Queue: 3 jobs
Job 1
Amino acid sequence: MTEEPTITTIAQHAGVSIASVSRVLNGLPTKAETERKVMSAARELGYVPNSAARSLKSRRSNQIGFAMADIGNPVYLAMIREIQPIFKAAGYRLVLHSTDADTADEIDVLRGLGERYIDGLIMIPLRLTGEHLTMFAAARAPIVVIGSVPEDAPVDNVRTDSRAGVRLAVEHLHGLGRRRIGFVNGPLDTVPGAARSAAYAEALAALGLPYDPGLTQVGDFYRAEGARAAARLLDRVPDLDALLCANDLIAFGALDVLRRAGRRVPQDVAVAGMDDTDLATLAWPPLTSVSLGSAERGRAAAELLLDKLENTRRAPRVVTVEPRLVVRASTDPSRIPGEEAP
Amino acid sequence: MTEEPTITTIAQHAGVSIASVSRVLNGLPTKAETERKVMSAARELGYVPNSAARSLKSRRSNQIGFAMADIGNPVYLAMIREIQPIFKAAGYRLVLHSTDADTADEIDVLRGLGERYIDGLIMIPLRLTGEHLTMFAAARAPIVVIGSVPEDAPVDNVRTDSRAGVRLAVEHLHGLGRRRIGFVNGPLDTVPGAARSAAYAEALAALGLPYDPGLTQVGDFYRAEGARAAARLLDRVPDLDALLCANDLIAFGALDVLRRAGRRVPQDVAVAGMDDTDLATLAWPPLTSVSLGSAERGRAAAELLLDKLENTRRAPRVVTVEPRLVVRASTDPSRIPGEEAP
DNA sequence: TTGTATGCGTTATCAC
DNA sequence: GTGATAACGCATACAA
């Protein structure tokens, strides 16, 4: 019992060859008698196939990787919730990589594809460098990138139209009569940071509002720094009447600051986030947010990867998820819970 | 470039034997000239070692598993946030298992230990069956269980004194002058459900309060069902003046219901949760919660497992994390943010 | 220091 | 149907 049983052990106990053991274990046609002997020996010895040996032979690990910046962000969590069961049902295990938004780390993960410990990878690079693209091209296993990627990149791609998303939010705030619409963004050298920055300027222009650089503050994508950035903005633009945040976490930080500053949300300052995480309905007031379809993107990515694993030679595909504005009380006072008409 | 390079390929290109290649790659003493040739060939060919072959030889996968009921619960997220970097730094990858609180699934994971695709496992069983204990005893790789486990189980164990935690909360509510203290719990056949149920009764008794079965409602551990259970409770006990919830998610559901019912928190009903998740500070009002040290438990589990991997023969250890009451506005009106004295 | 040869546990291809 | 036997890619004991 203390020795790790292998097919050789089973073969000895059952008095057959290892080939027969392997056949029985893999459901290939065998005489009933042989099958019985093998199965009972296997059960008795507590045999479990060794995955390393199996992988070496089969050239498949039955694992897929998921690489994101930080497991602490609920957006990624929403994706994992979709991805995990899909792969589990398909017989794959999920290997997690939290890269801390570090490019070198992401490249490491891509290099890891060559080790063949995963059969495929879903990745969300926060910054997309030439090195990423080189590795994509050289990769020996299928990759799905969530987030925009150049047209000719040899990877499947799930994207969301964050430009349209930002526009939805800005138009909504404008429609509420707000004219001093601030913007708290994450780093401009990140894929989402850059896209949302451009989209913000564009949306203002489309509405005939002037673009005022003083209305933007840049921090990172987390609550604490979001709070600091919002505080800076509030300090410099006292007559701010609306605030768009590049993600929900930033918006939560902004809500903290506005509350401490005694500004009423939404009456004084309307606040909108992006990602529409679970937490939006928990915040006070509940947060208006642009859904970028995290769950859908996760599901799409998983399905693309699964398909590609079975259909290796097909051309790269792009799936786009449409953003959707979810209006809650942080911009619309009539939606404050508990204050509806009975 | 299209053929997967192996040490054999490198050996050919460098004009040396595969043994030399292996030595160079593993930093064993070699002539400088040989080393140079091998390294340059390896780089040129884009060689990456095959992890299956390496695992087969070394009998180590450099992966560790983390099995929890549901990746959607922020408690587990808090743990992963601690666990992941610790193992990453130690050269291990993290394989995730979301078992849906399904015992059969958990047993599968334990059986998977035999496949040797992970070198160790951190597990949080929601229910602990005899089958679990059998598998623990038979396991061929170290296991750390988060959550209580019998004394003689051959696994490391990280626990929290949830009994003391419940008592802290009940005493706090009692100290606020509340006497009708309801309890919304998760399933009684789960480890935490059973423990918290007993602890609740005990704490009441210690305070000389009568135990009224009507004051308890059982649902599951999620927000939606937490809301329904709280609604049932409110319906049957109109004079409820305090509510202890078995975890934060349940408490969030309860807050939703109380708000819709027009009950002021904490003035009419004081609400406390357990786990002290990140989300507690996001809720409105911010949630008083019993911290069960999720981060500490995650860290402790990771460190125990890492230690056991290097020190295979040592006896099982138990680490206990003390609960701590974190008082916020959902029980203490003086702490409502934005209403402090300036 | 280097090369040859063997084994890790499987699967798969042969003859029998 | 079944049993030898050869890979899979790597690490290493041993011989040179």
Note: The domain at 63-161+294-323 of chain B is CATH 3.40.50.2300 (Rossmann fold).
Job 2
Amino acid sequence: MLSNSSKYALKAVLYLAIHTSSENKILARDLASLINVPPAYIAKLLQELVRKNLAHSEKGPHGGFYLDELNKNEPVINFIYAIDGEDKLNSCLLGLSHCNHLNPCPLHHLANPMRDALLNNLKHKCINDLVIDIKNGKSSLPL
Amino acid sequence: MLSNSSKYALKAVLYLAIHTSSENKILARDLASLINVPPAYIAKLLQELVRKNLAHSEKGPHGGFYLDELNKNEPVINFIYAIDGEDKLNSCLLGLSHCNHLNPCPLHHLANPMRDALLNNLKHKCINDLVIDIKNGKSSLPL
DNA sequence: TTATAAAAAGATAAAAAAATCTTTATATAT
DNA sequence: ATATATAAAGATTTTTTTATCTTTTTATAA
């Protein structure tokens, strides 16, 4: 469903959303150990998010990664799209390019309503919504 | 979501369900070209399904692969489990081993209802149910 | 201005998944 | 019996994904 890369990126982003701001950054290597992801790997993923304006970074002493308020209000799906591309979540379950609602594949009716509902949630929930759940005890870390 | 291998296997199984029986087998290489899957690859996958009693084969002249009535009545999910293993569809979206309904990860509420509904469909629909849809024009090939 | 601390970029390596090739076993027909 | 057609099994190759390592750039502070 999600690649390792997307999973790691989401874990990182959740951590950043809870614990960082422009005044309070975190080093890639510290973040890595806190969310159980290889340090060099998470650094790469964060660089990609920064390039796509889904996270921020500063170089040099007292530098590090953080999320600003705009980032925290991005829909969850944007982070997945940034790392995995759009096709991964949107393509036909059987990999058929012709499959759509007018020309449904044999698994379409069985799976698409759920997929659409999931995509809808991912599009309408932002990172901050997930953080609110965590703070209300509706979901939990650690990552 | 599904590996290439599972997608290929499901396409093969659907074809076999519609077009084969113990009196009417098909060669791996013929099936391969009909469903657009590499011949050596589909042969391997079918061998795995045969080993797990989800399909049948006969060697030698007039041999080939086919599904019997029991196979056609297997739930769709069994073919996926046979190829991808059970974990792939059941593990936490973020890959967290501790995640469950009592200790939900931040994506759990957002995704699990849909995943459960999908799994339920895959468990309760058998291959023949999909074939009936195709025959009624509710879904369509080619594969 | 120099040293240092950090991310960015790019190159490389390792592991897993996808795909193919070769050999063996088995059934059928001649 | 022998030749042939097929799946089964196993080995190998290729591609993709995952992960790491090295070098460069940039910002800070002494």
Note: The radius of gyration of chain B is 17 Å.
Job 3
Amino acid sequence: MTTERTRTERYDPSSVEPRWQARWAELELYRTDLGDTSRPKYYLLTMYDYPSGDLHVGHWYVKTPTDAIARFHRMHGENVFFPVGFDAFGLPAENAAIKKKIHPAAWTYQNIDNMRRQLRSMGATFDWASEVVTCDPAYYRWNQWLFLRFLEQGLAYRTTAPVDWCPNDGTLAREQVEGVERRCWRCGAKVEKRDLAQWFLRITKYADELLDFRGLDWPEPIRIMQTNWIGRSEGAEILFTTAPDDHQPGGDDLRVFTTRPDTLFGATFMVLAPEHPLVARLTAPDRRAEVETYVAAARSATEIERLSTEREKTGVPIGASAINPVNGARIPIWIADYVLAGYGTGAIMAVPAHDERDFAFATKFGLPIVEVIRAAGAPGPANGLSEAYVSKSATDLMVNSGRFDGQPAPAGFRAIVEWLKSEGKADFAVTYRVRDWLISRQRYWGTPIPVVYCAVDGIVPVPDEELPVRLPEHVDYQGSGENPLRRDPAFLNTVCPRCGGPATRETDTMDTFMDSSWYWFRYLSPGLDSAPVERALVDRWTPVDQYTGGAEHAVMHLLYARFFTKAMADCGLVGEREPFRRLFNQGQVLGADGERMSKSRGNVEDPDALVARYGADTVRLYLMFMGPWDQGGPWSPSGIGGVARFIGRVWTLALDPHGIEPGDPASGTLPAGEDAATAERTIRGAAHRTLATVTADYEAFHFNTMVARLMELSNLLFRYRGTDVAGGSAWDEAIALLELMLAPAAPHVTEELWARHLAARDEAWRSIHAERWPAVDAAAAAVETHELPVQVNGKLRDRVEVAVGLSEAEVEALVLARPKVVAALDGKTPLRVIHAGGGRLVNIVVRG
RNA sequence: GCCGAGGUGGCGAAACCGGCAGACGCGGCCGACUUAAAAUCGGCUGCCCGCAAGGGCAUGUGAGUUCAAAUCUCACCCUCGGCACCA
């Protein structure tokens, strides 16, 4: 008997995992009863995916820890709603259509089928009954409906805006414009800008409200990025007028926005955006050729290039002048690409003495620099300023500013604006960096914008009862990259809903960010065909309690979602004005080469192969163990074997507590100096201390240290395997705690072990995932002594085991008597003894 | 360029509040078990000097604050995310 060394069967995920997945599905364990009010609700949302074809480990990296959160909350008795869906419109489907001659819909649905299968292999607790697919007319119909409400509210409007344009392939997305040469990805033609009439949503109306994050538990960096993206600037709008010349009569209004009206006397020239509407009219005939060349060049540059502060400043004078309203001075008008048409008024007054970009510009082109602000007490510069003085100190004084000389700059700011305001030439103003949201896309695979154009009635909204405006199925998307909807007469030609006369449909479709701006509301009632959202469920379940997804969405998706919620609230559709109470951004898993995973780079890591080899639990646990969840990093599978080993050890501990390791002579005997009673105290103490830290780690999403703590506990239990205490009550308690703690992260193996324990005790089966999260036994977890590090002059010299709760004097006496400390003191008298952080460390200071 | 994040052993990382740098795991080395291998189990493993006891050095670089700095401050270097038509 004793020589029999047969081990328990190994853990075999390939048989255990599918069996439990099937059982959970059969029992509909994760279908949420949204009407159940007996328990607290927990709406857990993870960013839905674009159906690109295959899941990669990056998808697992977001979703499996989120699933652990869902399970953790269920174990706390909450009614958890954890839906999934697909962000199914978008450019890649159209690209696939062009390249592979497959219909975008076919490509998309084929990918969705595959990804559904892959998502199910995670063993996650998604509520599939709530699934949303945005390219389904039952979904995009409500995009159209919402658009029409926004149109009624004045939140949607149409105006012209430039697009990247290829003469052969029409509008191009940013990623379809290649290289610094800016050429078309398909035909290589030089890309130009073209102005098109397009639809916008008025996000700027909510700019101030979007700056308010009160009540939201969001990461600070995301709040800062959104705040900077919105970019609120307080200042004034100043009215300059153009001076008369030989070629034009003057008297045109030129409005500028400035944050520094106190520097107005230092405005020595004016710069218009090359796209500014007055440029053509004001330009002198002899300047025209040069100006037109410059405007063309500026239009082909990207905004990132134009706003670079590093780049050499460029610009040309247009041969006209403006009148500075404070002193009547004639100042030359230039155009330069660092001034953008879309920001402020598209025109600036240049104050080179007090703005870095203006200084660089004036220096390069020999324009005058007039100092008008000086630090208090500073002498005036002897030979002119060597750099711009941009400091905004409250004690700065105004100089060379007529009757404002000697005034503090902040007072001058107000005084100058008040004075000009009384003359109708200025007013206080606020400008935002954020621009209204351009939602028009000249593409096929998106939600058609539901308006028609009638020669008689102009822009006419499609009536609600005619929604959805369906995408025609059979279109010619092979001809060119231009929107195929324009080539489909059956779609294009319609009748005006108002007059019944001939009309044409809008052929632009919506930005897919429109779809993702309200999908979590739709999850609550995906099949509802009378309204986009069911108000009662929305009121009960939103805002979302926890949202997880990538930080790459910090400003666009997450800002649009907030805007949409506010706009929907103003349309009376929802009650809350914020979508996501708590946000977490996990890091990105990069390819092994450190680059973003993408098919074209060939660095995509396929989770199916890993699951086949190690099982879903190991992959889940490894992704959690890799590092902090918000960090991400390059993918490397080295180390996954360690996690697989850990799961195997838990399996062995749970099913074979009395086994002896033939390779370890100490196996099966208690550690030296321990009897059964102390061993059991050690086991219970370790288990309950682990429970305390693991609980905190789950709550803080510190999954990597959570796994480490469980490894430590299993290592400790392994030392007691085969001894007299193995299989005893303390042991069994520790094993049960270990399984419960591991259950949210590794749901299959823990479910199997739990079922076997129940069967061994002849108890009826119940899922471990329906068990309550255990409570810490504080008495068991308490420690009696701890190790105290002792430093002399900040260097570690000794460690002392001390009882918990000694006074500082007792500790000091103990420590000063230690031989190593005496040696380190070398006869010198301690100057101070510092007791840090409640017995964490003692530092003895001796030098003078 | 602008906004945001991050740089710690051979590798992934830990140190949550300014208090023992390197938990946990990978890899490596040594051992046990085995006819053998695999698997499994145990031990050691930041670098340098030393037989050892011990000592010195060390958290991207350089300065500073402090009894004490991976952690705070300043400057610089490098990597990653976003920059409005990829999602």
Note: The CA atoms of residues 337 and 620 of chain A lie 50 Å apart.
